[in-house]
Amino acid sequence: MAKSDQEIIDDLQMRIAFLEQSQDDMNDILTAQQAQMTIMERALRHLNSRLDEVGNSGVKHSHEETPPPHY
């Protein structure tokens, strides 16, 4: 059974609507992921700065420390 021109047009319109909805959904997901990445980048920068502060707090490395008296 051959489809009429109107049925073909209706089918194409439904497919286009589905593709547009899929694109909108993917855009929303991408936007949310970008926001999460921005938050994680800020947290990582903060953690790196805290590690730098702790690393420069005057604690010596093990090879710089004198051995305890029981050695």
Description:
With 71 residues, the chain is mainly α. It is 72% helix and 0% strand. The protein contains 1 helix and no strands. It has one helix spanning 5-55. The radius of gyration is 30 Å and the shape is rod-shaped. The protein starts with a helix and ends in a 16-residue tail after the last helix.
Describe, in short, the structure shown:
The protein is mostly helical. It has one helix spanning 5-55.
Rg = 30 Å
Runs with pLDDT <50, length 5+? none
Q: Give the oligomeric state.
A: single chain
The number of distinct β-strands equals 0
Proportion of beta-strand residues: under 5%
Portion in helices: over 70%
Number of helices: 1
Average predicted local confidence, pLDDT: 90
* Shape type: rod-shaped
Terminal CA distance reads 95 Å
Topology as H/E string?
A: H
Q: Structural class per helix/strand content? A: mainly alpha
Q: What characterizes the major β-sheet?
A: none
